[in-house]
Amino acid sequence: xxxxxxxxxxxxxxxxxxxxxxxxxxxxxHQENGMENMMLFExxxxxxxAMQSVVDDWxxxxxxxxxxxxxxxxxxxxxxxxxxxxxxxxxxxxxxxxEIIRRMTEExxxxxxxxxxxxxxxxxxxxxxxxxxxxxxxxxxxxYSIIYDEYxxxxxxxxxxxxxxSQVRAFRHTSTLAAMKLMTALVNxxxxxxxxxxxxxxxxxxxxxxxxxxxxxDRLELLLQKRKELQENQDEIENMMNAIFxxxxxxxYRDSIAEIRAICIEEIGVWMKLYSDAFLNDSYLxxxxxxxxxxxxxxRLKCLTALQGLYxxxxxxxxxxxxxxxxxxxxxxxxxxxxxxxxxxxxxLLTLVLHTDEVLSPEDCESVxxxxxxxxxxxxxxxxxxxxxxxFSQREPEEEGAPKRRGRQSPNANLIKxxxxxxxxxxxxxxAAYLVDSLWECGAELLKDWECMTSLLLDDPLPGEEALxxxxxxxxxxxxLCTVRQAxxxxxxxxxxxxxxxxxxxxxxxxxxxxTRMTELFAVALPPxxxxxxxxxxxxxxxxxxxxxxxxxxxTTGRLEKHLESLLRQIREIVEKHTDTEVLEACSKTYHALxxxxxxxxxxxxxxxxxLLDELVxxxxxxxxxxxxxxxxxxxxxxxxxxxxxxxxxAFHNAHDLSQWDLFTSNFKLLNTGIENGDMPEQxxxxxxxxxxxxxxxxxxxLSEGSSRKEDLVTLRKQxxxxxxxxxxxxxxxNTAVKEQAFTILCDVLLxxxxxxxxxxxxxxxxxxxxxEDSLQSELLSFxxxxxxxxxxxxxxxxxxxxxxxxxxxxxLHKRRNLLxxxxxxxxxxxxxxxxGADIFKQYMRYYNDYGxxxxxxxxxxxxxxxxxxxxxxxxxxxxLFNEMLSxxxxxxxxxxxxFCGIKELARRFSLTFGLDQxxxxxxxxxxxxxxxxxxxxxxxxxxxxxxxLNLAFLDILSEFSSKLMRQDKRTVHMYLERxxxxxxxxxxxxxxxxxxxxxNSLQAGGDxxxxxxxxxxxxxxxxxxxxxxxxxAATAGTSESSSSSSEVWQQSMQTPVMMPSPHLTxxxxxxxxxxxxxxxxxxxxxxxxxxxSHQHLIDNLGFQVHFHNCELVCLCSRRGTGLMEEDxxxxxxxxxxxxxxxxxxxxxxxDFDTMDIDLPPSKNxxxxxxxxxxxxxxxxxxxxxxxxAASLTPYHIQPIx
Length: 1202
Description:
Subunit structure: Part of the cohesin complex which is composed of a heterodimer between a SMC1 protein (SMC1A or SMC1B) and SMC3, which are attached via their hinge domain, and RAD21 which link them at their heads, and one STAG protein.
Radius of gyration: 41 Å
Helix content: 55-70%
Oligomer: single chain
Strand content: under 5%
Structural class: mainly alpha
Region (Disordered): 1-31, 1010-1074
Keywords: Cell cycle, Cell division, Chromosome, Chromosome partition, Coiled coil, Nucleus
Coiled coil: 190-243
Largest sheet: 2 strands, antiparallel
Subcellular location: Nucleus; Chromosome; Chromosome, Centromere
């Protein structure tokens, strides 16, 4: 064995080395001045010296005294592992490697979890690269003599093999990295030897093939001797590599630490790439294949990057055939890896595999194709490159010297058609922008061939060429629009953005060139395209968006005014032909884009726009007057004319200020007539409401921009309030669509004209502030309850009879969600009273699937605004549900009924929203309990004093919030509860009194401990001892401070308790004495006089204006910035406190955080949670078998390749 031989050689050489030049060193450290007095570790850590000179100095030292130099190298590896121990010369001579390693393990610093390879900071940033470079240079400089002396390499390999099998992570990690880099360096040496052997063999063959007279026998002998030496060196290097591979790699490639496994896989990929003749075979490839199933993404990533280096070289593909056939399915499945970096590299690897013919089946390719629509941009771009190489790599070759074909005859024509076909076959027609973005980096030249695209749309097909179908033309226009947008905006579509990126000068120049080219092309081509597809709404809508990306200066500089006139003429004709809202809005946006005062074409476009609007408004006023005069006699044709004209005006009013035409009067007259007669067509009312809304918004925008006259403010105030009253009247309309439109607009107007409109230096708008009256608030809430919180089957009107159609149901749900969101914004911005949210919050459980996210966010925002009022709203919602249940089931209901259990479950959900920070929510929880107690005793029993109050069962619901009370507050709440109790109530034990009993128990749970936390300042017995061992909890200071202010909260309305505190029902006999609590503070004993006063003061203030010192008007309610509900709460607890219950959402319930007291060992309590690593260096915390039986830790069981 190599290890045994190495040890013997080391001892023999050690005897020879005694008395050498090592006398000038101490424990292997140089004692001379300058750089020589620094250890190898310090030199490599600083990284200031050239590694070549560092290694040369060590080699000179090795030649003088190899024992001392080798001791330097051993200490270098030990110190690089973070161990502060030093191997002495005596240890080196007399101890085995295992004994040395055991001694070094004992020297580790237990309080530190970091070592050089993992320490962060600029000093250690380059340590790993310097460490690896040192090993590579060391082998390279020693490759001609020293590595063959059967001493240095044997000793180093033996040491690294022993360290790599250590239970200490730092030793395993550092030694494995060193061994793998050592192996890589030896592979380079073996490769050079192989090349030299081949050259020597060729020289020998050439010399031997000469004629006998010309043959030099002495040269043949020299070549034979040289080849023999090279062969011996090659065998020795192979033995070294074999020892490292079997002693380190085979065990560490499945180590329990992911970084160590990643190092192994990364390096074996380098070996196979460098020395493919020796390593690129199934015996080594199988390790990469197996590790592709690793649980950690970084290891899977290293597998893929290693394989990419192999597949990139096409000459190696033949050797990879068996591996590819065996593991191809795994690589394809990794394109859907949960780690996006792994998925990207898997797709890139499959792109390289495309070079091999017929390896990937059509099904394999299709699984990659659909990833071009991925929301993660790197994945989509990688898939786009795969798609481009698979479908577009084979172009028609152009003949040399022939004129370049353009338009429909260009080589790109068929590729563009292929893109269209792929887009249609994918059946994701709303995602063309994502397809274009995916192909942009690899196929921008193809996608920017707009001349070819317009030629395919406008020119007649060539003889024998099949024309595009209507569906294909629609898809091509959509793709063309997306390419224009991508070229003009230079950023990915919505949902794929990676943040704002600063464009380089080259990218900016490309963007300007593309905008110029697209403007010159489409300024000429767009009018004929609009003329050809004028009657097709979908095509026209996309085409009309093109001018938004033009460089409008080109119209003037390029003398293209006649094409502008043609464009304006086509847009006018489209407005006159179409009544589709999307088409009209596209026309409006196009006029808005062209009406830019910075360009000389503004006057021409403005005149055309004004003429069009003049005609539309005149026509509308004329038609409306006739329509209103005819009244009930108006026919459908008249109504259609009014509606179509109103649609056009409304669409333009969205983007253009039409204040000069006074549309408010005519629209208000129309709406008023609709209210009076009640027979106005719904679409006319809907668009009239929208148009009037735009009138008010434009008027407000003009007043907000600058100084406003009082007359204008008065006018707008009158119009706004009259319009709000009109919308309120339409809330009672028989038509659902009209009511929904009136409700949405009314919510928007109330939000815009709320008290927040005066912020930001707009105090002059204060006369416009409008607060809704109680009647309006009530109607808005009634609308939500009647039109949003309904069963799907009941919503027959809003889906227009498409109740069985799934798309119709989804659309109806989307509409209802928008209505609820509009009303919730009024709650969040305090436009309506927060207590109205109670009717929303109580629906959380019943409609969780439909509106749970909206209600949850509303609760979170209201808590940020006012925690106390939010808590009062939550308890009010529970009270409302309780009253509804009583009215339905009566006062003798069964507490196991589904209705009561549902309310109790909702209370539990509400309780979870308060999170784990009891200090922040202390005042809110106190107010919640106060309101709940008062409600429970509000209605006395009509049967007399001995009977239960009618609402007593509500205490069972209220007990769900007891765990959120701070310890010192539980006793205070309990004393407040006793204000409402009589002496007889405390003695009752019948079932009807169980809610009171359970609620009292929930308040008394942990009550004995409460006195300890409150009175910690008064007692020193036990606690003083404990304080020396552990740090006090972080919240102790805040708790002790807030206890005094908390006592003020409860004091004002509290009188002397009716009865003495009852004894606790929990046993205290078995309390652990090591907790350091004073026995005198059990709940059955009275508190000291000053503490009684503190509790009395706290209770008396329950009358009550809560004003804890830590109460802020606006604060975050959770670590995430949003309210924590059951699904997303992440309790921060120590591992030892983790509950074994099956449901994580019951964590707050399943563990009594208020009474649990975990005594961790002092050494653990001193550390932060982030420092408690599973492989911590404390020998007592290391699992002996975790590394020794590492083979059993592999997460996969795949048979080796045979």
